[in-house]
Protein 1
Amino acid sequence: MRVANLAGRLILLDGGLAVDVETASGGRFPADPQQIYPRWAEFRHWAVQASPGPGSPFSREELGAPAPAPRQLIAIGLNYRDHISETGFATPEHTPSVFTKFVTSVTGPMTEVRLPKDGHTDWEVELVVVVADRAFQIREADAWSHVAGLTVGQDISERVIQLENPSPQFSLAKSYPGFSPMGPCLVTPDEFEDPDDLRLGCTVNGDRVQFGSTRQLIFSVPVLIAKLSAVMPLLPGDLIYTGTPAGVGLGRTPPRWLRRGDELISWVEGIGELRQRFVG
Ligand code: ZN
Protein backbone atom coordinates (compact mmCIF):
# COMPACT_ATOMS: atom_id res chain seq x y z
CA MET A 1 0.00 0.00 0.00
CA ARG A 2 1.16 3.50 -0.83
CA VAL A 3 -0.24 6.62 0.82
CA ALA A 4 0.63 10.28 0.45
CA ASN A 5 -0.27 13.78 1.55
CA LEU A 6 -1.95 15.75 -1.25
CA ALA A 7 -2.34 19.41 -0.30
CA GLY A 8 -2.79 18.45 3.36
CA ARG A 9 -5.20 15.55 2.75
CA LEU A 10 -4.44 11.86 3.15
CA ILE A 11 -4.65 9.92 -0.12
CA LEU A 12 -4.21 6.33 -1.18
CA LEU A 13 -2.18 5.94 -4.35
CA ASP A 14 -3.87 3.66 -6.82
CA GLY A 15 -1.72 3.13 -9.91
CA GLY A 16 -0.56 6.75 -9.91
CA LEU A 17 -4.03 8.11 -9.17
CA ALA A 18 -5.17 9.67 -5.87
CA VAL A 19 -8.05 8.35 -3.77
CA ASP A 20 -9.07 10.82 -1.05
CA VAL A 21 -9.31 8.77 2.16
CA GLU A 22 -11.81 10.90 4.08
CA THR A 23 -14.20 11.01 1.13
CA ALA A 24 -13.81 7.34 0.16
CA SER A 25 -14.31 6.21 3.75
CA GLY A 26 -17.44 8.34 4.20
CA GLY A 27 -15.70 10.31 6.96
CA ARG A 28 -14.58 7.29 8.97
CA PHE A 29 -10.95 8.34 8.63
CA PRO A 30 -9.71 11.94 8.93
CA ALA A 31 -8.22 13.98 6.10
CA ASP A 32 -5.19 15.05 8.19
CA PRO A 33 -2.35 12.66 7.24
CA GLN A 34 -0.73 12.84 10.70
CA GLN A 35 -3.95 11.64 12.37
CA ILE A 36 -3.97 8.29 10.59
CA TYR A 37 -1.01 6.75 12.43
CA PRO A 38 -2.73 6.12 15.80
CA ARG A 39 -5.32 4.14 13.81
CA TRP A 40 -2.88 2.55 11.35
CA ALA A 41 -3.94 -1.11 11.74
CA GLU A 42 -7.63 -0.23 11.39
CA PHE A 43 -6.88 1.97 8.39
CA ARG A 44 -4.80 -0.70 6.63
CA HIS A 45 -7.51 -3.26 7.18
CA TRP A 46 -10.12 -0.91 5.69
CA ALA A 47 -7.92 0.00 2.70
CA VAL A 48 -7.39 -3.67 1.82
CA GLN A 49 -11.03 -4.68 2.38
CA ALA A 50 -12.73 -1.67 0.79
CA SER A 51 -10.26 -1.33 -2.10
CA PRO A 52 -11.58 2.18 -2.75
CA GLY A 53 -11.22 3.82 -6.12
CA PRO A 54 -10.93 4.71 -8.89
CA GLY A 55 -8.62 7.62 -8.16
CA SER A 56 -8.11 10.98 -9.82
CA PRO A 57 -5.03 12.47 -11.50
CA PHE A 58 -3.05 14.92 -9.37
CA SER A 59 -0.10 17.25 -9.54
CA ARG A 60 3.13 16.04 -7.87
CA GLU A 61 3.91 19.64 -6.87
CA GLU A 62 1.01 19.48 -4.41
CA LEU A 63 2.42 16.55 -2.43
CA GLY A 64 3.33 17.23 1.20
CA ALA A 65 5.20 15.15 3.79
CA PRO A 66 3.51 11.79 4.50
CA ALA A 67 3.91 12.51 8.24
CA PRO A 68 4.03 16.32 8.35
CA ALA A 69 3.81 16.89 12.13
CA PRO A 70 5.52 14.06 14.04
CA ARG A 71 5.88 14.48 17.80
CA GLN A 72 9.39 13.08 17.61
CA LEU A 73 11.83 13.18 14.71
CA ILE A 74 14.78 10.99 15.58
CA ALA A 75 17.82 11.03 13.33
CA ILE A 76 20.78 8.67 13.30
CA GLY A 77 24.30 9.85 12.50
CA LEU A 78 27.28 7.70 11.48
CA ASN A 79 25.34 4.61 10.44
CA TYR A 80 27.22 3.59 7.26
CA ARG A 81 30.93 2.64 7.51
CA ASP A 82 31.91 4.32 4.23
CA HIS A 83 30.31 7.58 5.43
CA ILE A 84 32.07 7.36 8.82
CA SER A 85 35.42 6.97 7.01
CA GLU A 86 34.85 10.16 5.01
CA THR A 87 33.89 12.19 8.10
CA GLY A 88 36.80 11.13 10.32
CA PHE A 89 34.54 10.26 13.29
CA ALA A 90 34.93 6.96 15.19
CA THR A 91 32.43 4.15 14.58
CA PRO A 92 29.64 3.79 17.19
CA GLU A 93 29.69 0.22 18.48
CA HIS A 94 26.84 -0.40 20.92
CA THR A 95 24.58 2.63 20.79
CA PRO A 96 23.63 4.54 17.64
CA SER A 97 24.57 8.21 17.41
CA VAL A 98 21.20 9.95 17.92
CA PHE A 99 20.07 13.55 17.42
CA THR A 100 16.84 15.29 16.42
CA LYS A 101 15.80 17.37 13.48
CA PHE A 102 13.31 19.85 14.93
CA VAL A 103 9.91 19.32 13.33
CA THR A 104 9.58 22.85 11.95
CA SER A 105 12.16 21.76 9.33
CA VAL A 106 9.81 19.15 7.79
CA THR A 107 8.49 19.77 4.26
CA GLY A 108 7.14 17.81 1.32
CA PRO A 109 9.13 16.25 -1.51
CA MET A 110 9.40 19.09 -4.06
CA THR A 111 10.61 22.35 -2.57
CA GLU A 112 12.81 25.39 -2.75
CA VAL A 113 15.26 25.59 0.16
CA ARG A 114 16.85 28.83 1.31
CA LEU A 115 20.59 28.47 1.95
CA PRO A 116 21.73 29.89 5.31
CA LYS A 117 23.97 32.92 4.85
CA ASP A 118 27.70 32.13 5.26
CA GLY A 119 26.84 28.45 5.77
CA HIS A 120 28.29 25.28 4.29
CA THR A 121 25.15 23.42 3.30
CA ASP A 122 25.43 19.73 2.49
CA TRP A 123 23.23 16.81 1.39
CA GLU A 124 22.46 13.46 3.10
CA VAL A 125 20.00 11.09 1.42
CA GLU A 126 18.34 8.76 3.93
CA LEU A 127 15.73 6.07 4.29
CA VAL A 128 13.04 7.35 6.67
CA VAL A 129 10.89 5.09 8.87
CA VAL A 130 7.40 6.17 9.96
CA VAL A 131 6.25 4.53 13.20
CA ALA A 132 2.76 2.96 13.39
CA ASP A 133 1.55 2.20 16.91
CA ARG A 134 3.23 3.23 20.18
CA ALA A 135 6.37 1.13 20.47
CA PHE A 136 8.18 0.72 23.80
CA GLN A 137 10.79 -1.92 24.63
CA ILE A 138 10.33 -3.71 21.34
CA ARG A 139 12.35 -6.81 20.41
CA GLU A 140 14.32 -6.71 17.20
CA ALA A 141 12.35 -9.67 15.83
CA ASP A 142 9.06 -7.76 16.26
CA ALA A 143 10.30 -4.37 15.07
CA TRP A 144 9.02 -4.35 11.49
CA SER A 145 5.45 -4.88 12.73
CA HIS A 146 5.65 -1.43 14.37
CA VAL A 147 6.56 0.33 11.12
CA ALA A 148 3.74 2.00 9.16
CA GLY A 149 5.97 2.49 6.16
CA LEU A 150 9.10 3.87 4.57
CA THR A 151 9.75 7.08 2.72
CA VAL A 152 12.66 9.08 1.28
CA GLY A 153 14.28 11.84 3.34
CA GLN A 154 17.03 14.41 2.98
CA ASP A 155 18.93 15.31 6.14
CA ILE A 156 20.12 18.67 4.83
CA SER A 157 22.95 19.86 7.06
CA GLU A 158 24.80 23.14 7.63
CA ARG A 159 28.33 22.09 8.53
CA VAL A 160 29.66 25.30 10.15
CA ILE A 161 27.17 25.29 13.05
CA GLN A 162 27.22 21.48 13.17
CA LEU A 163 30.95 21.23 13.80
CA GLU A 164 32.14 24.54 15.29
CA ASN A 165 31.58 23.72 18.99
CA PRO A 166 33.90 21.44 21.00
CA SER A 167 30.98 19.01 21.20
CA PRO A 168 29.31 18.89 17.76
CA GLN A 169 25.65 20.02 17.80
CA PHE A 170 23.98 18.15 15.01
CA SER A 171 20.37 19.03 15.84
CA LEU A 172 20.45 22.80 15.37
CA ALA A 173 22.49 22.68 12.16
CA LYS A 174 20.03 20.26 10.59
CA SER A 175 16.86 22.17 11.45
CA TYR A 176 16.71 25.25 9.24
CA PRO A 177 13.33 25.66 7.49
CA GLY A 178 13.06 23.15 4.67
CA PHE A 179 16.03 21.05 5.85
CA SER A 180 13.94 17.88 6.30
CA PRO A 181 12.12 17.27 3.03
CA MET A 182 10.47 13.88 2.69
CA GLY A 183 8.12 11.89 0.51
CA PRO A 184 6.87 11.57 -2.13
CA CYS A 185 4.78 8.81 -0.51
CA LEU A 186 4.79 6.27 2.31
CA VAL A 187 5.24 2.65 1.19
CA THR A 188 4.29 -0.20 3.54
CA PRO A 189 7.09 -2.72 4.31
CA ASP A 190 5.25 -5.63 2.62
CA GLU A 191 5.66 -3.88 -0.75
CA PHE A 192 9.41 -4.61 -0.75
CA GLU A 193 11.03 -7.95 -1.53
CA ASP A 194 13.51 -7.18 1.29
CA PRO A 195 12.87 -3.95 3.24
CA ASP A 196 16.37 -4.28 4.78
CA ASP A 197 18.08 -4.02 1.38
CA LEU A 198 17.04 -0.88 -0.48
CA ARG A 199 19.31 1.08 -2.78
CA LEU A 200 19.39 4.85 -2.29
CA GLY A 201 21.27 7.81 -3.69
CA CYS A 202 21.24 11.41 -4.78
CA THR A 203 22.48 13.70 -7.54
CA VAL A 204 23.48 17.37 -7.56
CA ASN A 205 22.81 19.01 -10.94
CA GLY A 206 22.78 15.53 -12.46
CA ASP A 207 26.14 14.37 -10.95
CA ARG A 208 25.70 11.22 -8.90
CA VAL A 209 27.17 12.06 -5.49
CA GLN A 210 25.74 9.38 -3.18
CA PHE A 211 24.88 5.74 -3.81
CA GLY A 212 24.45 2.91 -1.33
CA SER A 213 22.14 0.29 0.08
CA THR A 214 20.40 0.06 3.45
CA ARG A 215 21.94 -3.44 3.67
CA GLN A 216 25.12 -1.53 4.69
CA LEU A 217 23.51 0.06 7.77
CA ILE A 218 25.53 -0.57 10.94
CA PHE A 219 22.30 -0.41 12.99
CA SER A 220 19.53 -1.81 10.75
CA VAL A 221 15.91 -0.62 10.98
CA PRO A 222 14.94 -3.44 13.43
CA VAL A 223 18.03 -2.82 15.57
CA LEU A 224 17.33 0.93 15.65
CA ILE A 225 13.74 0.35 16.76
CA ALA A 226 14.89 -2.06 19.47
CA LYS A 227 17.66 0.25 20.74
CA LEU A 228 15.63 3.48 20.60
CA SER A 229 12.51 1.92 22.15
CA ALA A 230 14.62 0.40 24.93
CA VAL A 231 14.97 3.99 26.18
CA MET A 232 11.93 5.92 24.96
CA PRO A 233 8.47 5.13 23.60
CA LEU A 234 8.19 5.71 19.87
CA LEU A 235 4.83 7.32 19.11
CA PRO A 236 2.44 6.87 16.18
CA GLY A 237 3.64 8.95 13.23
CA ASP A 238 7.14 9.51 14.62
CA LEU A 239 10.00 9.61 12.11
CA ILE A 240 13.38 7.93 12.17
CA TYR A 241 15.96 9.26 9.70
CA THR A 242 18.24 6.22 9.50
CA GLY A 243 21.58 7.76 8.42
CA THR A 244 23.38 8.49 5.17
CA PRO A 245 25.87 6.56 3.00
CA ALA A 246 29.15 8.02 1.70
CA GLY A 247 29.36 10.83 -0.81
CA VAL A 248 28.42 13.95 1.18
CA GLY A 249 30.05 17.26 0.26
CA LEU A 250 31.98 17.33 3.56
CA GLY A 251 33.82 14.16 2.57
CA ARG A 252 35.24 15.59 -0.68
CA THR A 253 38.61 17.17 -1.34
CA PRO A 254 38.03 20.06 -1.54
CA PRO A 255 34.61 19.97 0.16
CA ARG A 256 31.63 20.75 -2.06
CA TRP A 257 28.73 22.79 -0.69
CA LEU A 258 25.32 23.46 -2.18
CA ARG A 259 25.04 26.74 -4.05
CA ARG A 260 22.23 28.96 -5.22
CA GLY A 261 20.52 27.37 -8.24
CA ASP A 262 21.68 23.82 -7.48
CA GLU A 263 19.17 21.01 -7.88
CA LEU A 264 19.35 18.03 -5.53
CA ILE A 265 17.45 14.86 -6.46
CA SER A 266 17.29 12.09 -3.85
CA TRP A 267 15.75 8.64 -4.20
CA VAL A 268 15.17 5.31 -2.52
CA GLU A 269 14.44 2.20 -4.58
CA GLY A 270 10.74 1.33 -4.71
CA ILE A 271 9.59 4.60 -3.10
CA GLY A 272 10.32 7.58 -5.34
CA GLU A 273 12.32 10.79 -5.36
CA LEU A 274 12.67 14.19 -3.72
CA ARG A 275 13.60 17.31 -5.68
CA GLN A 276 15.11 20.37 -3.96
CA ARG A 277 16.14 23.63 -5.62
CA PHE A 278 18.42 25.89 -3.53
CA VAL A 279 17.92 29.63 -3.40
CA GLY A 280 20.01 32.25 -1.62
ZN1 ZN B 1 21.96 12.31 8.43
Protein 2
Amino acid sequence: MSTSKKFHSSIFHPTLRKWQEPNVNIEPENLMYPLFLIEKDDVIEEIPSMPGVSRFGVNQLIKHLEPLIKKGLKTVLLFGVIETLPKDSNGSSADSTENPVIRALPLLRKNFPDLVIATDVCLCPYTNHGHCGIFDEEGHMDNDQSIQRLAQISLAYAQAGAHIIAPSDMMDNRIRAIKEILRNYRLESRVAVLSYAVKFASSFYGPFRDAARSAPAYGDRKCYQLPLGSKGIAARAAERDVEEGADMLMVKPGMAYLDIVRQTKDMFPNIPLFIYQVSGEYAMLWHGAKNGAFNLNAIVMEALTSMRRAGADVLITYYTPLVLDLIQKQ
Ligand code: PBG
Ligand code: ZN
Protein backbone atom coordinates (compact mmCIF):
# COMPACT_ATOMS: atom_id res chain seq x y z
CA MET A 1 0.00 0.00 0.00
CA SER A 2 1.32 3.44 -0.95
CA THR A 3 1.80 6.05 1.78
CA SER A 4 2.44 9.04 -0.46
CA LYS A 5 -1.17 10.22 -1.00
CA LYS A 6 -1.95 10.58 2.68
CA PHE A 7 -1.88 13.82 4.64
CA HIS A 8 -3.61 13.47 8.01
CA SER A 9 -0.17 12.89 9.52
CA SER A 10 0.90 16.28 8.16
CA ILE A 11 -1.95 18.34 9.66
CA PHE A 12 -3.00 16.84 12.98
CA HIS A 13 -1.67 19.76 15.07
CA PRO A 14 -2.01 23.58 14.73
CA THR A 15 1.77 24.00 14.42
CA LEU A 16 2.00 21.39 11.67
CA ARG A 17 -0.89 23.13 9.87
CA LYS A 18 1.02 26.45 9.97
CA TRP A 19 3.81 24.79 8.02
CA GLN A 20 1.39 24.27 5.16
CA GLU A 21 0.85 28.07 4.98
CA PRO A 22 4.18 29.52 3.92
CA ASN A 23 5.34 33.16 4.03
CA VAL A 24 8.78 34.74 4.25
CA ASN A 25 8.95 36.18 7.78
CA ILE A 26 10.63 34.58 10.75
CA GLU A 27 8.04 33.81 13.39
CA PRO A 28 8.04 31.25 16.19
CA GLU A 29 6.36 28.68 13.90
CA ASN A 30 9.40 28.88 11.62
CA LEU A 31 11.84 27.80 14.33
CA MET A 32 12.64 24.32 15.57
CA TYR A 33 14.97 24.13 18.56
CA PRO A 34 17.44 21.19 18.73
CA LEU A 35 18.24 19.92 22.24
CA PHE A 36 20.63 17.36 23.70
CA LEU A 37 19.21 15.20 26.49
CA ILE A 38 21.38 13.37 29.01
CA GLU A 39 20.77 10.59 31.54
CA LYS A 40 21.19 12.62 34.74
CA ASP A 41 17.89 14.42 35.30
CA ASP A 42 19.21 17.34 37.37
CA VAL A 43 22.40 18.10 35.45
CA ILE A 44 23.32 20.76 32.85
CA GLU A 45 26.57 20.25 30.92
CA GLU A 46 28.14 22.93 28.78
CA ILE A 47 29.40 21.82 25.37
CA PRO A 48 32.91 23.20 24.72
CA SER A 49 32.64 22.87 20.94
CA MET A 50 29.34 24.79 20.92
CA PRO A 51 29.71 27.77 23.28
CA GLY A 52 26.32 28.81 24.66
CA VAL A 53 24.73 25.38 24.03
CA SER A 54 24.25 22.80 26.80
CA ARG A 55 23.12 19.25 27.31
CA PHE A 56 20.19 18.94 29.73
CA GLY A 57 18.82 16.34 32.08
CA VAL A 58 15.03 16.24 31.81
CA ASN A 59 14.31 18.32 34.95
CA GLN A 60 16.71 21.00 33.78
CA LEU A 61 15.24 20.84 30.31
CA ILE A 62 11.77 21.60 31.64
CA LYS A 63 13.13 24.63 33.50
CA HIS A 64 15.00 25.76 30.39
CA LEU A 65 11.93 25.46 28.17
CA GLU A 66 9.37 27.22 30.39
CA PRO A 67 10.42 30.82 29.55
CA LEU A 68 11.01 29.94 25.89
CA ILE A 69 7.50 28.57 25.52
CA LYS A 70 6.18 31.83 27.02
CA LYS A 71 8.11 33.59 24.25
CA GLY A 72 6.36 31.50 21.63
CA LEU A 73 8.52 28.40 21.13
CA LYS A 74 6.45 25.88 19.16
CA THR A 75 8.64 22.89 18.45
CA VAL A 76 11.81 21.09 19.56
CA LEU A 77 14.04 18.37 18.12
CA LEU A 78 15.41 15.95 20.72
CA PHE A 79 18.75 14.12 20.62
CA GLY A 80 19.71 11.52 23.22
CA VAL A 81 23.27 11.48 24.52
CA ILE A 82 24.32 8.56 26.70
CA GLU A 83 27.18 8.17 29.11
CA THR A 84 26.60 5.09 31.30
CA LEU A 85 24.12 3.18 29.14
CA PRO A 86 25.87 0.61 26.90
CA LYS A 87 26.82 1.14 23.25
CA ASP A 88 26.64 -2.04 21.16
CA SER A 89 26.42 -3.28 17.56
CA ASN A 90 22.61 -3.03 17.57
CA GLY A 91 22.28 0.39 19.22
CA SER A 92 20.09 -1.18 21.89
CA SER A 93 20.17 1.88 24.17
CA ALA A 94 18.34 3.92 21.52
CA ASP A 95 14.97 2.53 22.58
CA SER A 96 15.71 1.18 26.04
CA THR A 97 13.29 2.36 28.73
CA GLU A 98 16.24 4.20 30.30
CA ASN A 99 17.02 6.19 27.18
CA PRO A 100 16.83 9.89 28.10
CA VAL A 101 14.56 10.73 25.15
CA ILE A 102 12.12 7.91 25.92
CA ARG A 103 11.98 9.01 29.55
CA ALA A 104 11.62 12.70 28.75
CA LEU A 105 8.83 12.42 26.16
CA PRO A 106 5.90 11.75 28.54
CA LEU A 107 7.13 14.44 30.94
CA LEU A 108 7.45 17.03 28.18
CA ARG A 109 4.03 16.12 26.82
CA LYS A 110 2.51 16.56 30.26
CA ASN A 111 4.30 19.84 31.10
CA PHE A 112 3.93 21.44 27.67
CA PRO A 113 0.75 20.11 26.05
CA ASP A 114 0.98 22.43 23.01
CA LEU A 115 4.65 21.85 22.21
CA VAL A 116 5.35 19.82 19.07
CA ILE A 117 8.09 17.32 19.83
CA ALA A 118 10.31 15.84 17.14
CA THR A 119 12.89 13.16 17.87
CA ASP A 120 16.01 12.57 15.83
CA VAL A 121 16.28 8.88 15.00
CA CYS A 122 19.72 7.47 14.34
CA LEU A 123 22.02 4.72 15.53
CA CYS A 124 25.32 6.62 15.71
CA PRO A 125 24.92 7.86 19.31
CA TYR A 126 24.18 4.30 20.41
CA THR A 127 26.43 1.96 18.37
CA ASN A 128 29.88 0.93 19.57
CA HIS A 129 31.33 1.92 16.16
CA GLY A 130 29.51 5.26 15.96
CA HIS A 131 28.09 4.67 12.48
CA CYS A 132 24.47 5.36 11.57
CA GLY A 133 23.56 1.79 10.58
CA ILE A 134 24.13 -1.87 11.45
CA PHE A 135 27.01 -3.91 10.03
CA ASP A 136 26.95 -7.56 8.92
CA GLU A 137 29.63 -10.17 9.75
CA GLU A 138 31.70 -9.09 6.74
CA GLY A 139 31.82 -5.52 7.98
CA HIS A 140 29.43 -4.09 5.38
CA MET A 141 26.49 -1.89 6.26
CA ASP A 142 23.37 -4.08 6.26
CA ASN A 143 20.67 -1.78 4.91
CA ASP A 144 17.70 -4.10 5.57
CA GLN A 145 18.68 -4.73 9.17
CA SER A 146 19.43 -1.05 9.66
CA ILE A 147 16.03 0.18 8.48
CA GLN A 148 14.20 -2.48 10.51
CA ARG A 149 16.04 -1.32 13.58
CA LEU A 150 15.40 2.37 12.79
CA ALA A 151 11.70 1.57 12.40
CA GLN A 152 11.62 -0.13 15.81
CA ILE A 153 13.28 2.87 17.43
CA SER A 154 10.86 5.22 15.67
CA LEU A 155 7.93 3.21 17.00
CA ALA A 156 9.30 3.42 20.54
CA TYR A 157 9.63 7.21 20.30
CA ALA A 158 6.16 7.53 18.78
CA GLN A 159 4.66 5.37 21.53
CA ALA A 160 6.45 7.45 24.16
CA GLY A 161 4.84 10.61 22.76
CA ALA A 162 6.84 12.02 19.83
CA HIS A 163 4.75 13.95 17.29
CA ILE A 164 7.44 13.86 14.63
CA ILE A 165 9.99 11.18 13.77
CA ALA A 166 13.09 12.62 12.13
CA PRO A 167 15.43 9.94 10.78
CA SER A 168 18.94 11.34 10.15
CA ASP A 169 20.70 8.06 9.29
CA MET A 170 20.46 8.26 5.47
CA MET A 171 19.87 4.51 5.02
CA ASP A 172 17.96 3.56 1.85
CA ASN A 173 14.16 3.27 2.17
CA ARG A 174 13.93 4.05 5.85
CA ILE A 175 10.99 6.40 5.33
CA ARG A 176 8.91 3.55 3.92
CA ALA A 177 9.93 1.24 6.77
CA ILE A 178 9.05 3.86 9.40
CA LYS A 179 5.71 4.72 7.77
CA GLU A 180 4.88 1.03 7.61
CA ILE A 181 5.52 0.35 11.29
CA LEU A 182 3.55 3.47 12.29
CA ARG A 183 0.68 2.25 10.14
CA ASN A 184 0.81 -1.23 11.64
CA TYR A 185 0.53 0.26 15.12
CA ARG A 186 -2.24 2.67 14.09
CA LEU A 187 -0.09 5.73 14.74
CA GLU A 188 0.07 6.77 11.09
CA SER A 189 -2.26 9.76 11.30
CA ARG A 190 -0.92 11.06 14.61
CA VAL A 191 2.81 10.96 13.92
CA ALA A 192 4.59 12.82 11.12
CA VAL A 193 7.85 11.84 9.46
CA LEU A 194 10.36 14.62 8.80
CA SER A 195 12.99 13.18 6.49
CA TYR A 196 16.58 14.35 6.62
CA ALA A 197 16.22 13.68 2.90
CA VAL A 198 19.06 15.79 1.58
CA LYS A 199 21.91 15.41 4.03
CA PHE A 200 25.43 16.01 2.80
CA ALA A 201 28.63 14.38 4.13
CA SER A 202 29.64 17.72 5.63
CA SER A 203 32.52 18.90 7.79
CA PHE A 204 30.07 21.34 9.38
CA TYR A 205 28.88 18.53 11.70
CA GLY A 206 32.18 18.51 13.63
CA PRO A 207 31.01 20.18 16.87
CA PHE A 208 27.82 18.07 16.97
CA ARG A 209 29.69 14.78 17.02
CA ASP A 210 31.40 15.99 20.15
CA ALA A 211 28.10 17.28 21.61
CA ALA A 212 26.25 14.00 20.92
CA ARG A 213 29.24 11.71 21.50
CA SER A 214 28.48 10.22 18.08
CA ALA A 215 31.72 10.46 16.08
CA PRO A 216 32.45 7.33 14.00
CA ALA A 217 35.21 5.22 15.60
CA TYR A 218 36.75 4.66 12.15
CA GLY A 219 36.12 5.78 8.57
CA ASP A 220 33.61 8.46 7.57
CA ARG A 221 29.98 8.71 6.45
CA LYS A 222 30.62 9.22 2.71
CA CYS A 223 29.01 5.91 1.71
CA TYR A 224 25.62 6.99 3.05
CA GLN A 225 25.60 10.80 3.28
CA LEU A 226 25.52 12.73 -0.01
CA PRO A 227 28.61 13.89 -1.99
CA LEU A 228 29.22 17.61 -1.40
CA GLY A 229 29.17 18.67 -5.06
CA SER A 230 26.09 16.79 -6.15
CA LYS A 231 22.81 18.35 -7.21
CA GLY A 232 21.56 15.25 -9.02
CA ILE A 233 21.59 12.74 -6.21
CA ALA A 234 20.22 15.45 -3.89
CA ALA A 235 17.21 15.68 -6.20
CA ARG A 236 16.83 11.90 -6.39
CA ALA A 237 17.03 11.54 -2.60
CA ALA A 238 14.25 14.10 -2.08
CA GLU A 239 12.11 12.48 -4.77
CA ARG A 240 12.56 9.03 -3.25
CA ASP A 241 11.61 10.14 0.24
CA VAL A 242 8.52 11.96 -1.01
CA GLU A 243 7.45 8.80 -2.85
CA GLU A 244 7.94 6.82 0.35
CA GLY A 245 5.60 9.14 2.20
CA ALA A 246 7.72 11.78 3.99
CA ASP A 247 5.48 14.50 5.47
CA MET A 248 8.25 17.10 5.53
CA LEU A 249 11.72 17.34 3.94
CA MET A 250 15.02 18.70 5.22
CA VAL A 251 18.18 20.01 3.63
CA LYS A 252 21.29 19.90 5.80
CA PRO A 253 23.57 21.84 6.32
CA GLY A 254 22.00 25.20 5.49
CA MET A 255 24.09 28.17 4.48
CA ALA A 256 26.50 26.42 2.10
CA TYR A 257 23.61 24.53 0.43
CA LEU A 258 21.02 27.21 -0.36
CA ASP A 259 21.05 26.28 -4.07
CA ILE A 260 19.92 22.81 -3.01
CA VAL A 261 17.23 24.33 -0.80
CA ARG A 262 15.86 26.26 -3.78
CA GLN A 263 16.09 23.20 -6.01
CA THR A 264 14.22 21.08 -3.46
CA LYS A 265 11.53 23.74 -2.90
CA ASP A 266 11.03 24.14 -6.64
CA MET A 267 10.68 20.37 -7.03
CA PHE A 268 8.21 20.10 -4.12
CA PRO A 269 6.60 23.49 -3.54
CA ASN A 270 3.78 21.85 -1.61
CA ILE A 271 5.82 20.07 1.03
CA PRO A 272 7.11 21.95 4.10
CA LEU A 273 10.87 22.27 3.77
CA PHE A 274 13.23 22.41 6.75
CA ILE A 275 16.82 23.61 6.90
CA TYR A 276 19.19 22.45 9.61
CA GLN A 277 21.60 25.26 10.49
CA VAL A 278 24.08 22.74 11.90
CA SER A 279 26.60 22.85 14.74
CA GLY A 280 29.49 24.10 12.59
CA GLU A 281 27.37 26.95 11.23
CA TYR A 282 26.35 27.81 14.78
CA ALA A 283 29.97 27.83 15.96
CA MET A 284 31.20 29.75 12.91
CA LEU A 285 28.80 32.64 13.48
CA TRP A 286 29.43 32.61 17.25
CA HIS A 287 33.22 32.71 16.92
CA GLY A 288 33.07 35.28 14.12
CA ALA A 289 30.94 37.60 16.23
CA LYS A 290 33.02 36.97 19.33
CA ASN A 291 36.14 37.98 17.41
CA GLY A 292 34.60 41.18 16.10
CA ALA A 293 33.95 40.19 12.49
CA PHE A 294 30.25 41.13 12.80
CA ASN A 295 27.40 41.59 15.27
CA LEU A 296 25.89 38.29 16.40
CA ASN A 297 22.21 39.32 16.31
CA ALA A 298 22.58 40.84 12.86
CA ILE A 299 24.50 37.94 11.37
CA VAL A 300 22.12 35.31 12.77
CA MET A 301 19.09 37.11 11.35
CA GLU A 302 20.84 37.57 7.99
CA ALA A 303 21.75 33.88 7.77
CA LEU A 304 18.23 32.78 8.72
CA THR A 305 16.50 35.26 6.42
CA SER A 306 18.57 34.01 3.49
CA MET A 307 17.38 30.49 4.30
CA ARG A 308 13.73 31.62 4.21
CA ARG A 309 14.36 33.41 0.91
CA ALA A 310 15.94 30.27 -0.55
CA GLY A 311 12.72 28.41 0.19
CA ALA A 312 12.91 26.96 3.70
CA ASP A 313 9.71 27.00 5.74
CA VAL A 314 11.23 25.93 9.06
CA LEU A 315 14.72 26.70 10.39
CA ILE A 316 16.26 24.22 12.80
CA THR A 317 18.66 26.37 14.78
CA TYR A 318 20.54 26.35 18.08
CA TYR A 319 20.01 30.14 18.00
CA THR A 320 16.26 29.69 18.60
CA PRO A 321 16.32 31.29 22.11
CA LEU A 322 18.16 34.34 20.72
CA VAL A 323 15.80 34.65 17.76
CA LEU A 324 12.70 34.39 19.98
CA ASP A 325 14.07 37.35 21.95
CA LEU A 326 14.73 39.33 18.79
CA ILE A 327 11.22 38.61 17.49
CA GLN A 328 9.73 39.87 20.77
CA LYS A 329 11.72 43.10 20.57
CA GLN A 330 10.56 43.83 17.02
C1 PBG B 1 23.54 12.01 13.34
C2 PBG B 1 23.34 13.47 13.17
C3 PBG B 1 24.30 14.43 12.86
C4 PBG B 1 23.67 15.66 12.91
C5 PBG B 1 22.33 15.43 13.22
N1 PBG B 1 22.14 14.07 13.35
C6 PBG B 1 25.76 14.28 12.63
C7 PBG B 1 26.23 13.36 11.59
O1 PBG B 1 25.51 12.89 10.71
O2 PBG B 1 27.42 13.07 11.65
C8 PBG B 1 24.34 16.99 12.72
C9 PBG B 1 23.77 18.12 13.49
C10 PBG B 1 24.69 19.26 13.67
O3 PBG B 1 25.86 19.26 13.22
O4 PBG B 1 24.25 20.23 14.32
N2 PBG B 1 23.02 11.21 12.37
ZN1 ZN C 1 23.80 9.06 12.69
